[in-house]
Amino acid sequence: MRFVVKIALVLLVLGGAMYLFVFPARTYLAQKQNIAAEEQTVAVLKAEDSKLAAESSALQDNATIEQIARQEYGLVKPGQQAFMVLPAPSRPQPPPPPPPEHAAWYSSLEFWHYL
Fold this sequence. Notes:
Blueprint: H1 2-58, H2 62-73
């Protein structure tokens, strides 16, 4: 009987040790992985933020705004005329050939030729 009590006590101590050390360690490692992933996301977002800040500072210049307006939107200053070169017209496609006339479905069967 005392042997069973000792085994039960040892199992209880081992269970308590697992509860106190193993499960929190697993949670700690999972949190560490999540933190690493979020730090990578933050680094990507900071790089994008610096790129957008550079673009924003470039858009403060009137020459840059004028260049974008001319290239992307085709805008011109008052009194100027805009010209656009159009592509050559494409040749009309010839009409498709008419579908071949099909014989009766039974004419392709081989045994009809022997009758």
